[in-house]
Amino acid sequence: MSESTDLVFKDPSGEYVVRISEKVADRIKTYCQMRMDQETGGVLVGRYTGSQREAVVMFADGPPLDSKRGAFSFLRGVEGLAKKLAAFWTREGLYYLGEWHYHPLSAPVPSRTDHDCMSAIRSQRRVDCKVPILVIIGGNPQGQPLWSVTVYPAKGNPKSLPLLSRA
Q: Has domain 7-166 been given CATH number 3.40.640.10?
């Protein structure tokens, strides 16, 4: 019997931790494999533990139908998203945590556009996500993809969280 391998990202100060289950990581990789030469993405859903400094990503949804994709760009659509997020909250008590997207065959480094989008999400009251998370997958999703996680605190600059372990 094999054990689950979560990806755990933690900033050096220990202020923020993001845990992505193996199941969620596999789901994201599958979406990336379906779009090998185009950026793609979706939303992250989960819950916070304790002091809200640790986020546990429990589900990653794919791109809504009205999303726009290109070799070097992705604009997540919104079609059906509000209804899905409301259902996650109602049925399971899960929150919108942030976004994920794929940089095909390149480094998982947030672009200026990525930073601007996440900062906008952080400031939207109707979203109510005070510290949104951005997960970027780069490299080759057929092999060993590269992962980056960035959090966007309510105050201050974005913080990149290094991969701490595969727990």
A: no
Determine which helix (DSSP H) or strand (DSSP E) holds 113, and give its type and residue range: helix 112-123
pLDDT tens sequence across 93-126: 899 999 999 998 889 999 999 999 898 888 887 7
pLDDT confidence bin for 70, thresholds 50/70/90: confident
Predicted model pTM:
0.91
The CA distance from 3 to 156, in Å, is: 38
* pLDDT single digits (tens) 141-154: 777 889 999 999 88
How far, in Å, CA of 147 to CA of 138, rounded?
6
Please confirm, yes or no, whether 22 is among the known catalytic residues. no
Distance CA 106, CA 99 (A): 18
What string of DSSP letters covers 45-93?
A: EEEEETTTTEEEEEEE----TT-EE-SS-EE---TTHHHHHHHHHHHH-
Q: Which of 3, 22, 39, 79 is catalytic?
A: 39
